[in-house]
Amino acid sequence: MSGTGSVTGAAGRAGDSDTLQNLARVGLVAYGVVHLLIAWLALQLAWGGGSGQSADQSGALATLAESPVGKPLLWILAIGLVALALWQAAEVLRWRSGWSATGEARKKALGRSGKAVAKAVVYLVLAVLAFRFATGGGQSSSGQQQQTAAGVFGWPAGRWLVGLVGLVVIGVGVYHVVKGVTKKFLEQVDLASAPQSARRAVTRLGQVGYPAKGVAFGVVGALLVYAAVTFDPAKASGLDGAMRTILDAPFGKILLTLVALGIAAFGAYCFVRARYPERT
């Protein structure tokens, strides 16, 4: 028990250290920048036919890499995203003591730990992408999702696995929409010292940003489910494919513009979280 307590205490001290918190702030800004770039690519897709980059994370990083100061910024983004992942690892250890509890306490501890693991994976994947583009080895992800889905289709019950992943992604999208509508995202920021104007701005950005991101997730998940139902890996086209699917819908330009603006709002919300972080 004392060993577990010491590990948890060490995790708490690591998570609260000034160095890691400052790096995590950089990571939150980086996460916001990625979303702003995705929003810009989506707007270009809606009104200008696109810039040649996929409207997703890899396209955003590729766009940044092409800028004059892109490579140094990518290194900073990658380091910040790794710090965010480490912060999430500290969060898992922080809640470790609750795993052996009973009832609601155990449920809360397992839920928080699961969310922290999922976020850590997302941040690490983005960090790896940023490192690749910083070293010149990155490439746009257009077509990679279809190749991955085609490979999974070859596994035993692979078709069902793709469909299950699609349903999970849809669930994540619904969660984001609910989180935005219910303002649950406000639990992630510490606005005690923030002026009233900042509180209103944070609330509005989250109310717009989370549902927009949720819609994008929902379309990605729906495409995965459709790919599984039709046994067609070409339908599993990731976030870029989701953006293009929205564009092809009735009033697609308007819908995609609204989604892009919402994703931009989420990016701005990440900046605010970097200024007033509670925990990531």
From TrEMBL:
Tree of life domain: Bacteria
Pfam families named in the record: DUF1206 (PF06724)
Cell membrane keyword on record: no
Ranges of residues in domain DUF1206: 26-91, 116-182, 208-276
Entry keywords, A to Z: Membrane, Transmembrane, Transmembrane helix
Keyword ATP-binding part of the UniProt annotation: no
Transmembrane segments: 23-43, 73-95, 116-134, 160-178, 214-231, 251-272
Protein name: DUF1206 domain-containing protein
